[in-house]
Design brief:
Number of strands: 0
Helix content: over 70%
Largest sheet: none
Number of helices: 12
Radius of gyration: 21 Å
């Protein structure tokens, strides 16, 4: 009887193989990226079900906000609207993508509660779902930058190519945030409102509406702000600049730190997610 029962002892509570299981989850999730893409498309379709314009309502609202804020703040800051509005268009669209991604990351697991409880899918699928969903929404707003550039005669330079690695860096950060914040917010339901408040504060303390040079001698310290560093890797190339080595190093550092934190939490608490949601 002892020999018959021994093969069933595959799981050792003293050595639960958390790291191996986390790696298997990541591999399984990325192998099912088509499923994550289908779920993201379904989310967008369901969100705008019954709407005539669908996601383009977000494009229209962003365009109206951009026009209103551009004219108003150009007057308040005593800046030429032809110089300020293209910069604001890039800033506002990138910030909206970043802010919405962080908000969605907080609900990456709690929002998929029904799926998690019914199907044994890798949790990585739900993190990829957030990345794909926000990528589609961002794709509806990015053409606004081209429209504003065409209206004000701004021609993108070769540095625009550098925005691609910036977008990759942003996507990696959103994926890591979806895992980390998704787990923390599933365990502590008071965290999502805190995240929302932090993003509101970050909007005002980050150069989204105001330009970095307006803070004078504090400008070199702006890369300490992770939102600025990540934003600038996309915004600066689109505006004809490289962003600077310090900005890129800090963006990689902040993204790497977030990935490391997400990995530690995922390895340690992955087995408890189903009980938290």
């Amino acid at each position: 009887m002892l020999h018959a029962a021994s093969p069933a002892r595959e799981f050792d509570a003293a050595a639960p193989r958390r790291r191996e299981r986390a790696l298997e989850d990541l591999a399984g999730g990325f192998a099912r990226w088509r499923l994550a893409w289908a779920l993201a498309r379904s989310d967008i379709t369901h969100r705008y079900r019954g709407s005539v314009l669908g996601p383009f309502w977000l494009t229209i609202s962003t365009g109206v906000m951009l026009t209103a804020l551009g004219v108003l703040y150009a007057k308040l800051f005593r800046m030429d609207v032809t110089d300020y509005l293209p910069w604001l268009a890039v800033s506002l669209i990138i910030w909206n993508t970043l802010s919405q991604s962080v908000t969605d990351a907080s609900a990456s697991l709690t929002g998929a509660e029904g799926v998690i409880r019914q199907m044994p899918l890798p949790f990585t699928v739900h993190a990829l779902r957030v990345v794909f969903r926000n990528a589609v929404v961002a794709a509806h707003n990015l053409p606004l930058i081209g429209v504003v550039f065409a209206v004000f005669g701004v021609a993108p330079s070769w540095t625009a190519v550098l925005a691609l690695p910036g977008l990759v860096l942003l996507s990696v950060g959103v994926f890591a945030a979806s895992i980390f914040l998704g787990m923390v917010c599933a365990r502590f339901r008071d965290i999502p409102p805190i995240v929302g408040s932090v993003m509101q504060i970050a909007f005002f303390v980050s150069p989204v509406i105001w330009k970095p040079e307006m803070v004078g001698h504090w400008q070199p310290w702006l890369p300490i702000n992770p939102f600025f560093a990540v934003m600038e890797t996309v915004r600066a190339p689109l505006m004809g600049e490289t962003g600077g080595i310090v900005v890129w190093l800090m963006a990689v550092l902040w993204t790497g730190a977030l990935c490391g934190l997400a990995w530690v939490f995922f390895v340690r608490f992955r087995g408890r997610i189903a009980f938290w949601v």
